[in-house]
Design goal:
Chain B: It is found in: Cell membrane. The complex is a heterodimer of chains A (328) and B (268). Chain A is mainly α. Chain A has a single domain (96-326), classed as MetI-like (MetI-like fold, Orthogonal Bundle), CATH 1.10.3720.10. Chain A has helices spanning 3-8, 10-16, 23-29, 43-79, 96-103, 105-139, 142-156, 160-171, 176-181, 195-219, 223-231, 236-247, 249-265, 268-272, 281-292, 295-321; strands at residues 83-85, 88-90. Chain A has a two-stranded antiparallel ribbon with strand order 1-2. The radius of gyration of chain A is 25 Å and the shape is globular. Chain B has a single domain, classed as MetI-like (MetI-like fold), CATH 1.10.3720.10. Chain B has 268 residues and is mostly helical. The longest helix of chain B has 36 residues, at 232-267. Classes of the chains: A mainly alpha (328), B mainly alpha (268). Chains A and B meet through helix 1, helix 2, helix 3, helix 4 and helix 6 of A and helix 1, helix 3, helix 4, helix 5 and helix 6 of B.
Chain lengths: 328, 268
């Protein structure tokens, strides 16, 4: 997930193709779609081959993502205006689902709860990750850093429900944590089936990614900048606050935003660690679809989530790249 | 000096704590999958393979594993082809609407899987794909293509565009250049993409949960088991699933590591 948006943003960097050919060669062929400029002679058939070639590679990804990503999302939006008559989905153009959901207190409560819990998670994850990212970026050898970065990638591709199950066991009344606390006269900790449990689960999900992104952000801060601050008598914490954090701002904000996005859409942590009490938006969706069978209402919740995420991402991008850009 | 050493020690200790938090669930799953006791708790109940025997005797788990392998296999081939194509198009062409094209290819992982799941379920219900393995594959390809694209694109960034042009000037057709130059050059990234997309698909549970119907994949089975009682069998499944995913990731990483090492040497 982390790499995908980077891939999307790759084109400007990709087109520049750092340190490759001299300008003359670049401008000669690169801008034109392949065959029209590259090989001379037998122009028409060459051009036809080139067009077929371009279409063969260019069309499938676009077609696939349009058919199975764009169309379903569009379908989801359309469905918010449908109605359920006699337990059957009927195409319609009613606003009833929107009115119902937006006025329902269960939706409003879940929305506010999910939003703020995700904001809270993003803040906690960002703060908790920072010293670790700082250590990885500045205090260990490059080989150790590479190994630990690899380690942080691993959880991202390993079964998240199983990790949540494990966490559940840790915090259960007879679990490891409480049986370790009991002899000390502490506990028992009541984490399961509370919002705290949900946040713990969110951290299981987001912390590796946040540490990873923060490490990249900090490692990209020019060393000379930090050394200059030290040489000018700037203390450690002041260097972090006035030099490192402002220079790494974009990466730090991106890391926090990803934590928010992941937590906001997560279903597993609030269900199995939070006990669905209170439900989050993803739990509402799953319930409406799996048991309630009211797909149009679930679609309204889903569209509200997408809109929220888009607004949050736009605000965060503005925050990352806006205003003090000149100074950074 | 000793102050600095102490500070460094504290930072390292804190980092170890963060890593412990991240890896404790993974390690404990593996450790307790061999525990004889029913409830995973600290006094270790002795070594046992009974939970592994239990899951290999369970037909629903076996079917889940088979389904997961089929879905992951098909997904990784399609997603890697699509990801390679999109990366190549990005590398090679400039055209109107290219940023839209790339956004379309790259965006799916930023949409919460719960929403992708609902969207695919409602859509696939209309076209008769819901409840089938093909329906799951379709969704997993959407989700994992961007990962493949990112890997191949990173590799292509190291390929001098003049090489392709030189091949054309020597009379090679675009197709010959593709399979004689581009694909061989990208091969490690293509293999890494195959492993990575397989891992994404193998662990994906939300889209699969919405779309699968009765054709459960392994993670969907796990999700269903989580709703029931504490069962050490989940640890055994978890250990196997971790084993498969980590193997795939390590393979991908090794391929990419060899790549970046070579690229660094070439530049240096």
């Amino acid at each position: 997930m982390t790499r995908a948006p980077a891939g999307g943003r790759a084109p400007p960097a990709g087109l520049a193709l750092p340190g490759t050919s001299p300008e003359g060669f670049m401008s000669e062929t690169a801008p034109a779609p392949a065959s029209s400029t590259a090989p001379p002679a037998t122009v028409p058939s060459r051009r036809a081959t080139g067009a077929r070639f371009a279409l063969f590679w260019g069309a499938p990804p676009a077609l696939w993502q349009a058919a199975f990503f764009l169309v379903p999302l569009g379908f989801l939006v359309a469905m918010t205006f449908w109605s359920v008559k006699n337990f059957r989905l009927t195409p319609d153009s009613t606003l009833a689902n929107w009115v119902f959901i937006l006025n329902a207190s269960f939706f409003r409560n879940a929305y506010v709860y999910t939003f703020w819990l995700s904001v809270f998670t993003a803040l906690i994850a960002s703060v908790a990750a920072f010293p670790a990212a700082y250590t990885l970026a500045y205090k260990v050898s490059p080989a150790a850093r590479r190994f630990m970065i690899f380690m942080l990638v691993v959880p991202f591709f390993t079964s998240y429900p199983v990790r949540i199950y494990s966490t559940q066991i840790f915090f259960s009344p007879q679990g490891i944590i409480n049986s370790a606390l009991a002899p000390l006269g502490l506990g028992p900790l009541h984490v399961l089936n509370t919002p705290t449990g949900t946040v713990v689960g969110y951290l299981v999900l987001t912390l590796p990614l946040v540490v990873l992104l923060q490490t990249f952000a900090l490692a990209n801060v020019p060393r000379t900048l930090i050394e200059a601050a030290h040489n000018l008598g700037c203390g450690r914490f002041r260097t972090i606050a006035t030099v490192i954090i402002p220079s790494a701002r974009i990466g730090l904000i991106v890391a926090g935003t990803f934590a928010f996005v992941l937590a906001f859409g997560d279903y597993v942590a609030p269900t199995y660690l939070g006990g669905s009490k209170p439900p989050t938006l993803s739990i509402l969706i799953a319930d409406q679809v799996k048991s309630g069978n009211n797909w149009p209402r679930a679609s309204v919740v889903a569209v509200m989530m997408i809109v929220t995420l888009m607004v949050v991402m736009l605000v965060m991008i503005g925050l990352a790249y806006g205003r003090r850009k000149g100074r950074a | 000096m000793s102050m600095a050493a102490l500070r460094r020690l504290l930072l390292l200790a804190y980092t170890a704590l963060v890593f412990a938090f991240i890896f404790a669930p993974i390690v404990s799953t593996i450790v307790f999958s061999f525990n004889a006791d029913r409830f995973p708790s600290l006094p270790w109940g002795g070594f046992s393979l009974q939970w592994y025997e239990a899951i290999f005797a369970d037909a629903t788990i076996q079917r889940g594993l088979t389904n997961s392998l089929v879905v992951a296999g098909a997904t990784c081939i399609i997603a890697t082809f699509l990801g390679f194509s999109a990366a190549y198009v990005d590398y090679r062409y400039r055209f109107l609407g290219k940023s839209v094209y790339l956004a379309l290819a790259a965006l799916p992982p930023t949409v919460p899987v719960v929403i992708l799941g609902v969207a695919l379920l409602t859509f696939e219900g209309r076209v008769g794909l819901s409840g089938t393995l093909q329906g799951i594959i379709v969704g997993h390809v959407v989700l994992s293509t961007p990962f493949a694209m990112a890997l191949v694109r990173m590799r292509l960034a190291d390929l001098d565009p003049d090489i392709e042009r030189a091949a054309w000037n020597l009379g090679a057709s675009p197709w010959a250049t593709m399979f004689g130059v581009i694909v061989p050059f990208c091969l490690p990234a293509i293999l890494a993409a195959l492993f990575l997309t397989a891992a994404v698909s193998f662990d994906e549970f939300m889209i699969a949960w919405f779309v699968s119907g009765v054709n459960e994949t392994l993670p969907v089975r796990v999700l269903a088991m989580l709703q029931g009682q504490v069962s050490p069998r989940i640890n055994a499944i978890g250990a196997i699933v971790f084993g498969v995913s980590i193997t795939l990731i390590v393979l991908a990483q090794l391929l990419l590591g060899r790549l970046s090492g070579r690229a660094a040497r070439r530049k240096g």
